[in-house]
Amino acid sequence: MKKKSILIIMALILLPVTGMAQNIFDKYSDDTNVTYVSIKPKMFQMIAKIGIDTEDAEAMAYMDMVKSITSFKTIVTDNKSISEDIAKWVKSSSNTLEELMEVKDEGSEVKFYVKEGKDSDHVKELLIFVNGMDKILKESVEVDGKQRKIETVIVSLTGDINLNEISKLTDKMNIPGGKHLGKKK
Predict the structure, then answer these.
(1) pLDDT tens digits for 146-164?
(2) Alpha-carbon separation of residue 128 from 51, 166, 168, 175 (angstroms)
(3) Is residue 141 part of a domain?
(4) In terms of residue numbers, what domain contains 89?
(5) Angle 43-142-127 (CA atoms, 0-180°, nearest 5)?
């Protein structure tokens, strides 16, 4: 009976922690103050089946990378309170993730986090957190047909992700700091 009581007490203690650790993407997926994108595994399977030129090594490497991704989720918001909530969630999640890199510029910050994979070149999750974009982007941008001054962007990629391939892709897309992803601390 004593063991059962201890287990119940531990469960009650951990309940608020698991509630706080609710996935931020699930929390805001239906919120009208965010732009939410979630690409499911079936979509990645379909993309991988698209006919590509098998002679093009770059295209093949891209398709191999796409096959390795099981989930892509992103939230974009200009809402200050949601931005603060996302920042708190990222901070609380950082104990299960390893920070790879942080870039601070003109009041904004970009952080790259990973969850270890099968070896040092692979990760199970890549989390990119960009906060304070409104300080860099002086102009508003069009998101969902509306002009917005973006505050925060968070992106999560899960799967068997090769950091070297991601760094090549982010470099081609001119994502700040992307070329350094393959170089873990």
Answers:
(1) 766 778 999 998 888 887 7
(2) 30, 12, 16, 11
(3) yes
(4) 23-180
(5) 45
**What does the DSSP 8-state code read for residue 166?**
H
Structure token pair of residue 110: 């970009």
1 domain residue, yes or no: no
The model carries a pTM of: 0.70
Calpha distance 150→79 (Å, rounded) = 8
**Residues in Cβ contact with 166 at an 8 Å cutoff, skipping those fewer than 6 apart:** 65, 126, 157, 178, 181, 182
Helices (H), the chain: 2-20, 24-28, 41-49, 57-68, 80-93, 133-136, 163-172
Tokens coding 70: 């099981």
Mean pLDDT of 143-147: 68
Determine, yes or no, domain membership for 44.
yes
pLDDT score of 23 more than 50: yes
Give the Cα separation of 59 and 78 in Å (integer): 35
DSSP bridge pairs for 131: 109, 152
The answer to whether position 88 is within a domain reads yes
Instruction: Say which DSSP state 128 is in.
Output: E
The yes-or-no verdict on residue 42 having pLDDT over 50 is yes
Give how many domains the chain has, as a whole number: 1
Query: What residues are paired with 155 via a beta bridge?
Result: 74, 128
Size of the chain in residues: 185
